[in-house]
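Quick one:
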Amino acid sequence: MLKLQSVVAYYGRILALKGVSLHVDRDEIVAIVGPNGAGKTTVLNTISGIVPPRSGKIIFDGKDITGYPTEALVEMGLVQVPEGRQLFAEMTVYENLMLGAYRRSRAAKKSEVAADLERVYSIFPILKERRTQLAGTLSGGEQQMLAIGRALMSKPKMLLLDEPSMGLAPLVTKSIFKVIADLRKEGTTVLLVEQNAKAALAIAKRAYVMETGRIVMEGLASELVRNPEIQRAYLGMGYRQIMEQPRNV
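Output:
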C-alpha cells in the first residue's frame, strides 16, 4: 500500500534521510523505532508532504505521490497524526473533530459525516462526554484520543502515527495502543513511529529500526523484540557501538 524507494530528505542543510526504503502492506501495522534524532518523524513528514524529498520515490495505493501537497494526500486517504497532537486548543472537542472532516464535508452527505462522528464517539466515549469542552483543557490521554479521532473523521485508508504514547501514563498508553490494534482489524493500515519500542512491537506485524537517517535493521516485530541488540538499545546501552560491530558471515 505504501512504498518508499531510496528516499533522501533534508532539514535545511542537514541530511535527515539517507536513502530510506521501506514498505507497508494493506491491513498491516508497521512500526519504525529508534533513538531520538534517528529520522523517524522525518520519514512521516516526508511521506505526508511536509518535508520535500530531495530524491527517491514514494508510492501510495499504486500511485507515485512524491512531492504531493499534504491536502491532496489527505483526500487520497493518507493522514498523519502528528507528534504533540497539534490540536486547536481554543476550540471544542466537537469543533476539532469536525475539522477532520473539512476536506470531505462538501462531497460527503451530512448523514455520512454524522455517522463517522458517532463512530469516533464509540471508539473514544470520553470525547462525547467532553464534546463541548475546549481541547486545551483535556488531559494528555484525552488529547491523543482527540488527535486520532480527528484523523479518523477524514476517512483514512492509512494512518501515520507519530509518537502516540508521548507523555502518557502506562495505562493510558495501553488503551491507545489497543485502539490502534482495533483500527487495523477494521481495515485501517498503520505506519507507527514510536519511542516506546516495547509497546510498538507488541502490536506491529513488522518493524524497521532507524539510526541517523538510515534503516539499520528490519524484520518481524515478534523477532525484533527478542533481539539482544534491540533489547540493549532500549535500555540505553551502547546502541551505536552495537550497530557498528562487525558481524560474522
